[in-house]
């Protein structure tokens, strides 16, 4: 299996879809499904009926997973960049293609 280019805690930019251009932090990566969960992005509304546990009912807003191909890692200036792997000081690290800086992850 290839190394993950996007990891939990990364700052990402949405490249396509209804939230194009928005940024957020990766909350969870689902590699089997090829999806990521990004904070504040791809928010869906679930209408809940009143129950004994929640007698008020109402609308729950929650982030839904989105395709990992729709997001790119944000560079230090906030713009999207691709990621490559390099060996620095004997360690395999992720590097931003645009700036050449290592990505803290």
UniProtKB/TrEMBL annotation:
<dbReference type="InterPro" id="IPR003256">
    <property type="entry name" value="Ribosomal_uL24"/>
</dbReference>
<dbReference type="InterPro" id="IPR014722">
    <property type="entry name" value="Rib_uL2_dom2"/>
</dbReference>
<comment type="similarity">
    <text>Belongs to the universal ribosomal protein uL24 family.</text>
</comment>
<dbReference type="InterPro" id="IPR041988">
    <property type="entry name" value="Ribosomal_uL24_KOW"/>
</dbReference>
<dbReference type="InterPro" id="IPR005824">
    <property type="entry name" value="KOW"/>
</dbReference>
<feature type="domain" description="KOW">
    <location>
        <begin position="5"/>
        <end position="32"/>
    </location>
</feature>
<comment type="subunit">
    <text>Part of the 50S ribosomal subunit.</text>
</comment>
<protein>
    <recommendedName>
        <fullName>Large ribosomal subunit protein uL24</fullName>
    </recommendedName>
</protein>
<comment type="function">
    <text>One of the proteins that surrounds the polypeptide exit tunnel on the outside of the subunit.</text>
</comment>
<dbReference type="InterPro" id="IPR008991">
    <property type="entry name" value="Translation_prot_SH3-like_sf"/>
</dbReference>
<dbReference type="GO" id="GO:0005840">
    <property type="term" value="C:ribosome"/>
</dbReference>
<keyword id="KW-0699">rRNA-binding</keyword>
<keyword id="KW-0687">Ribonucleoprotein</keyword>
<dbReference type="Pfam" id="PF17136">
    <property type="entry name" value="ribosomal_L24"/>
</dbReference>
<keyword id="KW-0689">Ribosomal protein</keyword>
<dbReference type="InterPro" id="IPR057264">
    <property type="entry name" value="Ribosomal_uL24_C"/>
</dbReference>
<comment type="function">
    <text>One of two assembly initiator proteins, it binds directly to the 5'-end of the 23S rRNA, where it nucleates assembly of the 50S subunit.</text>
</comment>
<keyword id="KW-0694">RNA-binding</keyword>
<dbReference type="Pfam" id="PF00467">
    <property type="entry name" value="KOW"/>
</dbReference>
């Amino acid at each position: 299996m290839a190394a993950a280019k996007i990891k939990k805690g990364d700052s990402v930019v949405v490249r396509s879809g209804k939230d194009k251009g928005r940024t957020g932090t990766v909350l969870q990566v689902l590699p089997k499904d090829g999806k990521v969960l990004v904070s504040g992005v791809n928010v869906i509304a679930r209408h809940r009926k009143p129950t004994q546990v929640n007698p008020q009912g109402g609308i729950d807003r929650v982030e839904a997973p989105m395709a990992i191909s729709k997001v790119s890692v944000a560079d230090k200036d906030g713009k999207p960049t691709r990621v490559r792997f390099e060996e620095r000081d004997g360690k395999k690290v992720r590097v931003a293609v645009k700036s050449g800086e290592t990505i803290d992850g």
